[in-house]
Amino acid sequence: MRDLAAILLAITLVFFALRLATSLTRDRRQRKRTRLSIEATGQIILAEVPSEAGITFFTEDAKAFYFGQQTISKNAITATRVLINGTPIAASIRHDIRDAETVPQEVVENHPEGFSRDRWDVAIETTDASLVIPCGEIRERISQELARGIFTAVKMAIDTNAK
């Protein structure tokens, strides 16, 4: 009787392991198809931002950035900020709108210890609206790296358009 229970348990565990492997493979293939379709439109994928609905891509082409279904025209961007728990730690503001009271440009410092469980976001302000890109609260500096990558790309667009 014990042998039969052990065999059933082993079969059940193998079944769930195969199911998990199949699910992971399906998700990886779906993400690859999505990446290929994005790249086929001429966009460059800058970041894969985790969200409740899965992964949302932050991409760019020559004229705009894209976050999911939202389009952010590079010419309309006036400022960008890296936020930790809603507090800006770095900012880049277009030269033609900068005034004396704006936050100075800073480089996001590399923090080897990371900021575990702090929420990392990137705020992008345009002439029309503001958008906050939630980079997450993931440990091991993943969220910090996402925020740094997005901030750097938007900052470069601001610097390029200011010239």
Task: Give a description of the structure.
This protein has helices spanning 2-40, 142-162, and strands at residues 44-51, 54-60, 64-67, 70-73, 77-84, 87-93, 120-126, 130-136. The model is unreliable at 100-108 (pLDDT under 50). The protein is elongated. The strands form 2 sheets. The chain has a 4-stranded antiparallel sheet, sandwiched between helices. It contains 2 helices and 8 strands; from the N terminus they run αββββββββα.
Helical percentage = 25-40%
Instruction: Report low-confidence residues grouped into runs of 5 or more.
Output: 100-108
Provide the residue-averaged pLDDT. 83
Tally of strands: 8
Largest sheet: 4 strands, antiparallel
Classify the secondary structure makeup into a structural class: alpha+beta
One letter per element, helices H and strands E, the order comes to HEEEEEEEEH
The Rg value, from CA coordinates, equals 21 Å
Shape: elongated
